[in-house]
Amino acid sequence: xxxxxxxSEEDLPLKNELEMLVERLKEGNVDLHRxxxxxxxxLIRTSTSSMTSVPxxxxxxxxxxxxxxxxxxxWSPSDNKNRDSLKFRLQGxxxxxxxxxxxxxxxxxxxxxxxxxxxxxxxxxxxDLIGLALEIVPFFLKHNAEADAIDLLLELEIIDRxxxxxxxxxxxxxxxxxxxxxxxxxxxxxxxxxxxxxTIYRQHNKFTEAITLAIRLGDRDLIREDxxxxxxxxxxxxxxxxxLLARQQMPxxxxxxxxxxxxxxxHLTKHFIALAKExxxxxxxxxxxxxxxxxxxxxxxxxSGTIDSARQNLASTFVNSFxxxxxxxxxxxxxxxxxxxxxxxxxxxxxxxxxxxxxxxLWDMDEGLIxxxxxxxxPDEYIKAGALLAIGIVNTxxxxxxxxxxxxxxxxxxxxxxxxxxxxxxxxxGMAYAGSHRTDILELLLPLVSDTNLSMEIASLAAxxxxxxxVGDCNGDITSTILQTMMERDATQLKESWGRYMGLGLALLYxxxxxxxxxxxxxxxxxxxxxxxxxxxxxxxxxxxxxxNVLKIQNMLHICDDHLDKEKEDDLHQAFAVLGVALIAxxxxxxxxxxxxxxxxxxxxxxxxxxxxxxxxxxxNDSDVAINAIIAMGxxxxxxxxxxxxxxxxxxxxxYHKEPNCLFMVRIAQGLLHMGKGxxxxxxxxxxxxxxSPVAIxxxxxxxxxxxxxxxxxxxxxxxxxxxxxxxxxPRFLITLDENLNSLxxxxxxxxxxxxxxxxxxxxxxxGFQTNSTPVLLAHSERAELATEEHIALSxxxxxxxxxxxxxxxxxxxxx
Length: 816
Fold this sequence. Notes:
Layout: H1 11-26, H2 33-46, H3 56-61, H4 65-75, H5 84-91, H6 102-121, H7 127-142, H8 146-155, H9 171-181, H10 189-203, H11 207-217, H12 220-233, H13 235-247, H14 257-263, H15 268-278, H16 287-291, H17 309-323, H18 338-343, H19 347-360, H20 365-376, H21 381-394, H22 404-413, H23 419-432, H24 439-450, H25 456-469, H26 476-488, H27 491-495, H28 499-508, H29 518-524, H30 530-543, H31 550-561, H32 572-585, H33 593-601, H34 608-617, H35 623-637, H36 643-655, H37 660-673, E1 680-681, E2 685-686, E3 691-692, H38 694-706, H39 713-717, E4 730-731, E5 733-737, E6 747-753, E7 766-773, E8 776-777, E9 782-786, E10 791-793, E11 800-806
Parallel strand pairs: 5-11
Antiparallel strand pairs: 1-4, 2-3, 5-8, 6-7, 6-9, 10-11
């Protein structure tokens, strides 16, 4: 339709005036050009129009666009033809770009990015573009377009300039957007974003947010600096930061005893037991309470009791320890005649039974050591070894200045007379001091790795313990020792199943450190043995754990896609690559490892589609696939009491009632599902899923790697490797505290977390909430917020321990 046909009478003069101005531009009289342009500009800017329609002057000028452009070209020749808005802007007047409106500025910013890339490719100066961009950024920030401002500065590689533009109103949205971009960026931009957001938080004295980013950066000096600065700002705030560091298990030496106790996690057991009593789950449960065998439809005469009773007792040992973990009481072992239960097991079963005391007394160092003391003098080698392992378990995640774990376990490290005790002492030290970076333990364990006369079992478990203690530390001494050992050992030793644990010990040193492992990966290629491929994959997946790096995921999928001849080549590295996909993506490819990868990806997060996939695998004809699927169901449901999963596992117990191995796994999965009677999670992510705990990842990987050869480890004599999960176990509670560290019940809303990054206004951060009084339990995808404004939380995330302060501005509503 022609423009003229839809014009009203008042539009006609406007159209005629605009056409007259265009004609005047075409005339040769230069003196008239400036006033003509001013008139055009005024007409365009003063025209009122709705947001959805094009302003009338622009509509009428559209047919003349080519004419106006030609006129401009005849004035000044230019080589930049396709980015017109930017070209005219740089050559025109230097007024505020925001005066032309939001859409113009957005268009301008996209052209700045294109022009900048063009100039970079041709080695041209870009100062004028940067100057213009820095004029645009304040406009974006003022108009709730933080994402556009950050994207523009990222494009121009000057993101570190944004702190000067943010203020009290915009900093939170800017930092949230920057933190959420990190997983999508390539190094070094990802770290630059974190550092810049950290700088902004520090400018506004937001210490818990700042230290969260410092932990993600892995910069210990920066963490210490934030910690000290928080203390200068507010002593109570420093304690809150202390709880955050304790949750991440980052050791730090402080003179203040109160804060040192927080960092040592000393308060954990007291508050956990108080929570259990509050929720009425303190009473111990028996394995039968969990199995609910009366609901399993097994025909009479085919009861599961006819199956290998020692194996059944062993399953009950684990179920009992996981279900009653941290409560300090149970009905099998910690009772007066607990020795009777230990005696019902055989050899390694006795070891697991004795070690389960550590799990039941978890985090309660004083009581735990009293309970274990008598077992340390047991004449039975296996019971004594189990007690040593239990000491490591009890001390996991908590510290004590007297170092009881080190004092008791170190003397067994070099005792060659008792092989079992020696191994348990090595593993116990790894659990108790995971993430502590203790050099005295390094000196104790490193000789065991380098001594090629020792068995692969001892050397590999020592390497694993060192990997757990120095997780994410890139320690050069341990790296070179493990690589040297691999080169010196003969091929038959490296072929043993233990080789994977030596590799995992090496890989854990580089957890989350990305390119820092490049030299190690190159060195591994020099080892002429299939183990170099396996360990290479492990090192690579650990280095990029939790980064979401798409290139690495593609690389892992590519490894899985290789079709190997099983007779000639070892395909274990493919199994590790499958785990790698899950660990880096934190999408699941070779069948046996797929269930394990799903278990790792969704630990303590029972998503329905994942459960259904695992349920399908759990009935597989290949027993290895079925076993891995069953244990993965345990990982996915760990500590959630998920009713649908409980029903699935009961059906599996009936289905496998004649197959001892599968039934054993079903029982373990049932124990994991009810871990801590539904109060403990093994998910490595915490603080609103922003932080990944390296110690938790180490424990999960150590457990999952044992299932890549379940017959040797878990179904053989090393079922106690299941206790590696202890480093990932942590209560999923929210406990609000007053200034004296006493529980302070307040009402909170708990609901599904909603991602509000980049959304306009102040959207709700949770949906479908329920209002409860603290302490409360939080599921993996849930978030809590205070229901009233009576208190102010000192942490930006309501999770774990949170200090509350009275809000001085709060006015109580009239009850009348």
